[in-house]
């Protein structure tokens, strides 16, 4: 549950609070209301908008606490850094994973306690490390000797987590190509840290973003135990295990079961356990509505064509490119007869051929300019990486609701 005060102040800022209504019904009702109210304006906007259901975010946090009660989540701010989301999570006693000075400065006023932040970026700007030192953020990850020297110079009291490499082959977005020290590098890293007087307090890993193989977490926890032993041999006192992010709603209960059993198998019960979930908290909480700006028929009987929308891969649907997501558009109001259909490719608004959202989608043949389509489950890595290329998508509207989920 949300702390009562935080909850009251949060709900007072949300337009549509209907805790007894399902998320699906409330989000659809809200989209229709917005489209209808825009239609009444003298110059209605075709710009896309989000409906964000904060009830879903709160539900995901509850699910986390139910399934992994001993692991303190540090939400990965990069995933969706909208102030309402951060405020809700802060009120729910979630901690934060920040990767930059800006992310730290956004989160700190919400939580006040810098110990609730892990600076989980293995390669940091020296000036950002100094900023972390100034504001009291101590925990940070590393995976190279050079980073150790940088930290020594800028934040000698930091508390370090050695990021180890993982098998990320079962993940949507692989990270081991860029981050994580392999076992043969651990001795050098741990010895250097000891020799220059740095404090290694634990191990971090990330099995890759969007991980559907629960075994990956078990294998990484097993490797973390080996890294703990190595670090202790170099005189470090190890007390934190950071099991990273990657969690998917569909496989979460099973993944959590594997993690609980690996924690016990590899004797981490008395270690402080933390994690860095991102998409798990927000992905299902946001729906994007976009307007059909154009239609080009490619068969004269109107059985095939192309639809051009007011948002695309340079905007909020960048997750198609950066996050390897497949998204499915649905007509908000399926008017006319639905037994005659057309197939259409779906495109964004920019002047670029890369801006394709779908190759083939089936629509009622009545679909036309001015209709609205929506995309569900687009809360993660969407707004946070959106560009305004070609002058589109500047300041996308977000309408918040709070449903009872179900
Ligand atoms: N932590 C780190 C260091 C990351 O790089 C990422 C994503 O790239 C995350 C956490 C969040 O991952 P996810 O959204 O898959 O949970």
Automatic annotation (TrEMBL):
Cofactor requirement: pyridoxal 5'-phosphate
GO molecular function: ornithine decarboxylase activity
Modified residues (N6-(pyridoxal phosphate)lysine): 78
Gene3D superfamilies: Alanine racemase, Lyase, Ornithine Decarboxylase, Chain A, domain 1
Domain Orn/DAP/Arg decarboxylase 2 N-terminal: 56-283
Translocase among keywords: no
Keyword Lyase listed: yes
InterPro entries tied to this protein: Ala_racemase/Decarboxylase_C (IPR009006), De-COase2_CS (IPR022657), De-COase2_N (IPR022644), Orn/DAP/Arg_de-COase (IPR000183), Orn_de-COase (IPR002433), PLP-binding_barrel (IPR029066)
Protein origin, superkingdom: Eukaryota
Gene Ontology biological process terms, A to Z: putrescine biosynthetic process from arginine, via ornithine
A GO cellular component entry from the record: cytoplasm
Keywords: Decarboxylase, Lyase, Pyridoxal phosphate
Active site: 351
UniProt xrefs under PROSITE patterns: ODR_DC_2_2
Family (UniProt): Belongs to the Orn/Lys/Arg decarboxylase class-II family.
Protein name (record): Ornithine decarboxylase
Organism, scientific name: Wickerhamiella sorbophila
Lineage: Eukaryota, Fungi, Dikarya, Ascomycota, Saccharomycotina
């Amino acid at each position: 549950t949300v702390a009562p005060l935080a909850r009251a102040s949060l709900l007072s800022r949300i337009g549509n609070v209907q805790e007894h209504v399902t998320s699906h019904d409330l989000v659809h009702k809200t989209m229709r209301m917005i489209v209808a109210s825009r239609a009444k304006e003298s110059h209605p906007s075709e710009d896309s908008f989000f409906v964000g259901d904060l009830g879903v975010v709160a539900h995901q946090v509850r699910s986390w606490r139910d399934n992994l009660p001993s692991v303190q989540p540090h939400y990965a701010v990069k995933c969706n850094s909208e102030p309402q989301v951060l405020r809700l999570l802060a009120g729910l006693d979630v901690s934060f994973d920040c990767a930059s000075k800006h992310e730290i400065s956004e989160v700190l006023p919400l939580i006040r306690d810098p110990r609730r932040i892990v600076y989980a970026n293995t390669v940091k700007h020296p000036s950002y490390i100094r900023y972390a030192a100034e504001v009291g953020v101590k925990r940070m990850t590393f995976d190279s000797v050079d980073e150790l020297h940088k930290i020594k110079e800028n934040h000698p009291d930091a508390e370090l987590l050695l990021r180890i490499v993982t098998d990320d082959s079962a993940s949507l977005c692989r990270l081991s190509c860029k981050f994580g020290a392999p076992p043969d590098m651990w001795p050098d890293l741990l010895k250097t840290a000891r020799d220059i007087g740095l404090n290694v307090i634990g191990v971090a890993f990330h099995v890759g973003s969007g991980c559907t193989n629960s075994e990956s977490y078990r294998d990484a926890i097993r490797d973390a135990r080996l890294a703990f032993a190595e670090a202790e041999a170099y005189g470090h006192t190890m007390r934190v295990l950071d099991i990273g992010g990657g969690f998917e709603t569909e496989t979460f209960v099973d993944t959590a079961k594997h993690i609980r059993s690996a924690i016990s198998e590899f004797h981490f019960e008395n270690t402080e356990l933390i994690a860095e979930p991102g998409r798990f908290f927000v992905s299902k909480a946001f729906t994007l509505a976009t307007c059909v700006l154009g239609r080009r028929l490619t068969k004269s009987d109107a059985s095939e064509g192309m639809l051009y929308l007011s948002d695309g891969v340079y905007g909020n649907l960048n997750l198609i490119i950066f996050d390897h997501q497949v998204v499915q558009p649905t007509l908000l109001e399926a008017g006319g007869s639905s037994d005659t259909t057309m197939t259409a490719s779906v495109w964004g608004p920019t002047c670029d051929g890369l801006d394709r959202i779908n190759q083939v989608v089936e629509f009622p043949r009545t679909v036309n300019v001015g209709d609205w389509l929506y995309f569900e489950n687009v809360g993660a890595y969407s707004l946070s990486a959106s560009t305004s290329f070609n002058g589109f998508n500047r300041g996308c509207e977000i309408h918040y609701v709070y449903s009872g989920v179900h």
